[in-house]
Amino acid sequence: MELVLSGIGEGILAVNQLGKMVHCNDAAVKLLELQEDDAQLDVYQLTERSPLIGMLIQVLETGEGLSGGWKNGAGQSVAATVSPIRMGDDLMGAVGLVRDVSEAERLEQLRRDYVANISHELRTPLTGIRGMVEPLIDGVYETEQEKQECYQIIYQETRRLERLITDMLDISRLQDGRIHIELEEMQIHGILEAAARRLERRASDEGVRLRVEPGPDPVVLGNEDRIMQVLIILIDNALKFTPSGGSVTLRTRIADGMLWISVRDTGAGIAKDDLPYIFERFYKADKSRMETRGTGLGLAIARLVVELMGGTIWCESEVGRGSSFEFSVQLAQAEDAAEADLPNALPETDAKAVHEAVDNGDVKAVNAADKPKPAPSPAESGDVPESVKAQAQIREVAAAAGVEDENIEFDELLEMLLNDGRKGKSSDTDGNDRKG
């Protein structure tokens, strides 16, 4: 039992009826911040150590259970329950159970904040809609132009409401794993150009230069729709906080086996204290410039999408100089030379292995033997042209197979040898059958 109590994650501290400590496991020592020699003392000598000590004393005096909570010196939220230990009607001592509830409190606070943020974000467009509908009902606006202006505001607010609900559902599905992102091989620069074209008119209207810089464009593994979604979120954010005359630049670079895509602006920048939280839901770094068209969910969605594609996203920023958001996508693996055209792959193959495989009529073995070898060093290969080396290997295989035509093409040679191999196998089989 002692081993079981010592191994559990919750802290347990038990005292007898005299207040002498009879058990205190490692978790209790840590959460209560006790010292090693405290176990030799009774609880009446430790009243300044922890609130739990006072609770134990009170239970010994009253015989009634207690519950409470506090923050220890390490900033952990501790919840405690103290119960009396009885044998019949006699009070034999008390036992305290302490737990670290920091994570549970954090999650509960996040839930409360989420509900409060949703309520606020929903109320804002609804208030705008009601503010326009009531004058229309009361007949305050008489001219068609005034009515059209009201209709336009109502339309914009309903669109904002729709975007908010769509983003909330998107985040929920991404977090629950209900959205499966299929990855495929692609190149990024075409997507960058398409994203820039989509927001080019808005950038022009706001006097911001939006451009895509030339850069590396290797084949990557990603999802075109989702990469476009992330780019639109980041470019939209950049345009929102970049003044007229500024610029937004899209560029790529390769590092750490990944392709990194960045969206850099010359806008207002983000304060250092805000940077750790900008990817949280509903977090808005600049409260003084909160715009009705933003939902506060875009960067949270971008992070989820990037992580589901196997990448990461981060931001560096300086107030007054702009921000750079950068995310990564996986580089696709290079194709095996065996998947290339067979004659082109021949110079890097083992001619003997190919011949033996062909002699047995084993097509799979031919393909296996035809996989590329490490490229020879200049000293090994000399300056012989690849075409000459290829033809030399073809002649080597042909000579070993008894084919006299030195100018035979590789595909013809391969077909001939495979046919001969199958005939040889057939003859052997027939012979074996006849022997049997």
Describe the structure.
- With 436 residues, the protein is an alpha+beta fold.
- The protein contains 15 helices and twelve strands.
- The strands form two sheets. Strands 6, 7, 8, 9, 10, 11 and 12 form a seven-stranded mixed beta sheet that branches. A five-stranded antiparallel beta sheet has the order 2-1-5-4-3, sandwiched between helices.
- Strand 1 (11-16) and strand 2 (21-24) form a beta hairpin.
- Helix 8 (224-240) runs antiparallel to helix 9 and helix 11 runs antiparallel to helix 12 (363-369).
- The longest helix is centred in the N-terminal third of the chain and has 37 residues, at 102-138.
Q: What labels describe this entry?
A:
single chain, 436 residues, alpha+beta, seven-stranded mixed sheet, five-stranded antiparallel sheet, 15 helices, 12 strands, 47% helix, disordered C terminus
Mind sketching the topology for me?
Elements: H1 2-7, E1 11-16, E2 21-24, H2 26-32, H3 51-62, E3 66-71, E4 77-87, E5 90-100, H4 102-138, H5 144-176, E6 184-187, H6 189-198, H7 200-205, E7 209-212, E8 219-222, H8 224-240, E9 247-255, E10 258-265, H9 298-308, E11 313-318, E12 322-331, H10 342-345, H11 351-359, H12 363-369, H13 378-381, H14 386-400, H15 410-435
Parallel strand pairs: 7-9
Antiparallel strand pairs: 1-2, 1-5, 3-4, 4-5, 6-8, 8-12, 9-10, 10-12, 11-12
Helix pairs in contact: 4-5, 5-9, 6-8, 8-9, 11-12, 11-14
Question: What is this structure, in a nutshell?
Answer:
This protein has 436 residues and is of the alpha+beta class. Helices cover 47% and strands 19% of the residues.
